[in-house]
């Protein structure tokens, strides 16, 4: 039976195998063992997760391509005018989704191969790419405002800088959130610290 959480190993790991078969590859299985470790019902969900992520990736690539095409050609429809007016932010959003989706796809095939996949991660896989797009755009707002001095605030006038920034932030969103959390702690402190200070005053 698979472990309930990804990243925590799986039944049939090298530590649980007899000594004479404890020769494994990087997928936590004996060399030469090729049979799947998942039942058909699990594979059905894995394929659904894969298809949803591929839809995210396709839609984000289409969005980036449409914005680039719109910049090179004079906008004619109301939608094209709006996208042209919101670039680089709309492009940054789509690029952030692409980066986050690529990370989710890479993570999906790793956990499936290592028998660390579980059903409960489905929400993470469906929500994370959108979060990455929002995070990339929101942090871009912080840079453009001058609050976050990561790069020059005028750099986003070049659409390709904005697209790379969105993709980079989306792909490494976990690191970005950790950095923003450290920044928030430095600026505002913690809830526990605030509670203690109020108790001391009383």
Overview of the structural elements:
- The structure is a single chain.
- With 202 residues, the chain is an all-alpha fold.
- The protein is 65% helix and 0% strand.
- The chain is built from seven helices and no strands.
- It has helices spanning 40-72, 78-86, 89-113, 122-145, 159-171, 173-188, 191-201.
- The chain is globular, with a radius of gyration of 22 Å.
- The model is unreliable at 1-5 and 7-15 (pLDDT under 50).
Q: What tags apply to this protein structure?
A:
202 residues; mainly alpha; 7 helices; globular; membrane; transmembrane helix
Strand proportion, as a percent range, falls in under 5%
* Mean pLDDT over all positions: 81
- Major sheet size, sense and barrel closure: none
- Write down the oligomeric state: single chain
Which stretches are poorly predicted, pLDDT < 50 over at least 5 residues?
1-5, 7-15
The level of helicity is 55-70%
How many strand units?
0
Structural class: mainly alpha
**Individual helix count:** 7
Distance between the termini: 54 Å
Radius of gyration: 22 Å
* Helix/strand order, N-terminal first: HHHHHHH
Shape: globular
